[in-house]
Fold:
Amino acid sequence: MKKSTLIAVIVIILVIVGIIWLNKEPSKEAVLTPSDAAASTSPVPVTETTKVSLKTSKYENAELGFSVNYPTAWDAESTNTGVTFLIPVDKTQVSTVAELQGVINAYASKCSFPPVTTIKDRGTITVGKSTLNTISMSNTVQGRQYFNRMYSLQSGPICYMFQFSAITLAPESKKLTGSNLTQAQNNNKAIVNTADSEFISMVKSFAFVQGPAAQDETKVAPPVTR
Structure:
């Protein structure tokens, strides 16, 4: 056989082998697609809200490591640093309460209350084995009365801050007079005091929770794709 013919035969054989190899279906046992990997694990919820009773619900944030019980009527909205509770105002009552809100935030810092000129009272409360510092402030600006109650809890490098805030408009701004004016003043105080009391109960229900364990990356095989 001539040398040129032998080379041609070898080239043809190599081409045929290459075609067979490229068209060979890979072993299904050796291939794990991203969809297969996702189906093999269940996501762990970062935040969760569960109804404890008709009047009470539980908010849990596994990432920030805490849970609290709060009135079911409140609307819980998670944020990047915690949760905001929007507290409804009873519209059937004659009042000028404009806003009620409760907030819990977790920061990687030392706890410190914001600088204020007037503090209504200052103290501490005990929650489980923890002691929380607290201050409250009340002032009136341009016909609006502001009330704030704050708590702080230092846990290692993390500071948990709790804040209740209420904004009440002057009844006169709504042109209320006589018995309606007196009723609004009384209702304003009752509504804010009730929400404040519920907020204090929520703070006292605070508990630390264990977040989900992280995966050991040295033992996790990355998905194989084609």
User: Anything to note?
Assistant: The first helix runs from residue 3 to 23. The chain has one domain: 47-208. The domain at 47-208 is CATH 3.40.1000.10 (Protein Transport Mog1p; Chain A). The chain has a mean pLDDT of 83.
